[in-house]
Amino acid sequence: LTRSLTITSVDQTMFEKAQGEKVTLPCTFVLSEEDEGPLDIEWVLIPADNQKKEQIIIMYAVDRIYNHYYAAMTGRMQFTNPDPRFGDGSLDILNLKSTDTGTYQCKVKKAPGVQSQKIQLTVLGK
């Protein structure tokens, strides 16, 4: 039996917020001793509109945070914990806009373990 990393924040997977508010999308995880590869945390936005493709919005890889992929959220999002490698890959999104509505997927990889979790965010108009 191989133990591998586990995402522990599965209690709330739907969030409703008003425009202008802040949301923290949870993604906490526990690594296991078997996981030896580099840690990789990736947040992907799966748009409500199926015509649009998934968009990486922020990622953590090899001790660096990359957050310039998704111009629509530049400056409005950050990892909740500036050092996510100790088990907290949660994402803060500030000053919410209705266009932020969608399904967010947190993917945590540390070979051989890979886990992901989807969270539905609805941003309501004023």
Automatic annotation (TrEMBL):
Keywords: Cell adhesion, Cell membrane, Disulfide bond, Glycoprotein, Immunoglobulin domain, Membrane, Receptor, Repeat, Signal, Transmembrane, Transmembrane helix. One of its GO terms (cellular component) is intercalated disc. Residues 19-122 form the Ig-like domain. Gene3D superfamilies: Immunoglobulins. GO terms for molecular function: cell adhesion molecule binding. It is found in: Cell membrane. One of its GO terms (biological process) is homotypic cell-cell adhesion. InterPro entries: EJ_Adhesion_Regulator (IPR052307), Ig-like_dom (IPR007110), Ig-like_dom_sf (IPR036179), Ig-like_fold (IPR013783), Ig_sub (IPR003599), Ig_V-set (IPR013106). Transmembrane segments: none annotated. Pfam families: V-set. Its main location: membrane. It is a single-pass type I membrane protein. PANTHER family: COXSACKIEVIRUS AND ADENOVIRUS RECEPTOR, COXSACKIEVIRUS AND ADENOVIRUS RECEPTOR-RELATED. This is CXAR protein.
